[in-house]
Write a structure and sequence with these properties.
Length: 243
């Protein structure tokens, strides 16, 4: 089966969020990388329910730590905004990453036998640490459009993946699917409103930025899309430091 491109899998036919022009440019720049996540063996096995529980638990624990950095990045972006509404939205996005997705992690922690203390003591994989550093440094040091572009692939890809897998399965996962909660969360059409708000801000920040900053923002988006694929890979191989 050929690797799907961004045009093939970015949105589901119904209930999709709108994609403004600059977001489209970012997605087009990352097209092949974006599509590769949909065919990663970790994602395929997760969707089929055949993923090794040890690999999934490894992924969940690393993801919990990643979300802390995502939250930090959104909090940093809020300080860069001049409009109160934008500040509030990024603060709420920071909380959402910790609270809503944190509930999913807590549930799987009970099932797989790891605690918040285990997550806190976790050593980050090389791929996870690199992704976190990319997001935080871009949010802190680069322009607002670059920082926003760096955090955009994570929610966009997960929502697109969840809705794509739901569409492919022709319905919600059954209760006996081992990863039903994950699939239900990221296929929830309520996340479309979140993406509408995020991509509207990305477009507005791009409109206010220089051409050079917009080009760097596309590079930041592409880099994060690469790290998303690498995040599946670090979980698939249960990555460790080589030395």
């Amino acid at each position: 089966m050929p690797t799907p491109t961004a045009a093939d899998v970015q949105l589901t036919p119904e209930g999709a969020f709108s994609v403004p022009p600059f977001a489209r440019e970012c997605l087009d720049a990352a097209s092949e990388i974006w599509g590769a996540s949909f065919e990663h063996p970790f994602v395929q096995a997760l969707a089929e329910g055949t993923l090794d529980p040890e690999r999934f638990a490894f992924y969940q624990m690393q993801d919990a730590r990643y979300l802390e950095a995502f939250s930090d990045s959104c909090a940093l972006l809020s300080t860069r905004c001049t409009r109160p509404g934008d500040k509030q939205w990024f603060v709420e996005a920071a909380l959402l990453a910790l609270e809503v997705e944190g509930e999913l992690h807590a549930g799987y922690g009970e099932r797989f036998g790891y605690t918040p203390e285990d997550v806190a003591a976790l050593e980050l994989t090389p791929n996870n640490r690199a992704y976190q550093n990319h997001m935080i440094s871009t949010a802190e040091r680069a322009t607002l459009v670059e920082g926003t572009a760096a955090v955009t692939p994570c929610p966009w890809l997960y929502i697109a993946l969840g809705q794509h897998l739901l569409d492919r399965a022709r319905g919600a996962p059954s209760d006996d699917h081992p990863y039903a909660e994950w699939l239900r969360m990221y296929s929830d059409p309520e996340f479309n409103e979140y993406m509408d708000h995020l991509l509207e801000r990305l477009q507005r920040f791009a409109d206010a930025a220089s051409e050079a900053a917009r080009e760097r923002a596309k590079e930041a988006f592409v880099t994060s899309a690469r790290y998303e694929w690498m995040f599946w890979q670090q979980a698939w191989e249960q990555q460790d430091w080589p030395v």
